[in-house]
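[SOLVED] Predicted holo structure with copper (II) ion

Edit: marking solved, answer below. Original request kept for reference. I posted the sequence and ligand SMILES and asked for the 3D complex as structure tokens.
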Amino acid sequence: MLDWWLPENVSTYGRDIDWLFHLIYWITGITALLVFVTMIAFLVMYKDRPGRRARYTHGNTTLEIVWTVVPSLILVVLTFLSAPAWSKIKMQAPPPSDFAVQVTAKQFNWQVTYPGPDGKFGTADDKTLLDEMHVPANKVVHVRLRSQDVIHSFFVPQFRMKQDAVPGREIMQWFEATKPGKYELPCAELCGFGHSGMKGWIYVHGAEDYQKWAAENLRAQAAPAATDDRKAEEPKKDTAAAAPTGGKAKR
Ligand SMILES: [Cu+2]
């Protein structure tokens, strides 16, 4: 019923998040309505009238207990209701997959690294893209999330996926997108001056489309040209090096 409220869900675990989101919206919405209706009614009922004197009260203990216990119970119930989704998405080991990308956040880009033909990260045939990720649809994607400088947050609204990237740690997350398309990947953590411009795109391809893209962009260039790789990486190193030195850039 509140589906118009959220961006389209294209993730296998999106529904697990959405119904909780909607439930919480109903609870807080109804509570807000009750509070405001009561407040307006009381404003009218107890407004100043000729001959009316203020009455002093020390409150009502029963009422205090009720409005403390009821919200506490609601929170406890919400905790239990959200535990399965939290456990499935965040706590358990991700579903097995042979598709992994490494995402390194830095001020103010997403560096997306593919392991190359050898399937291993940290080797010469790795291929790094800036601010774009390409993945096949209907495939579990493991994201190894890192940060090079400060805390960033990997956020894909349509995937219902959000995870902080923390310097010094590699955090494993996962998603499985169900619909080909182009989805925004903003940084959701205020990470510095250029934070609002820190944005990438995730391209979800159909299986064949992805194979085609990978053949053109991952394998073809990675194999014959180690030099190409270096060229692609050089500007990245420069900007990374230039950031901390600031005005002292040599060129
Ligand atoms: Cu950021």
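OP edit: The two ends are 58 Å apart (CA to CA). Thanks to everyone who chimed in.
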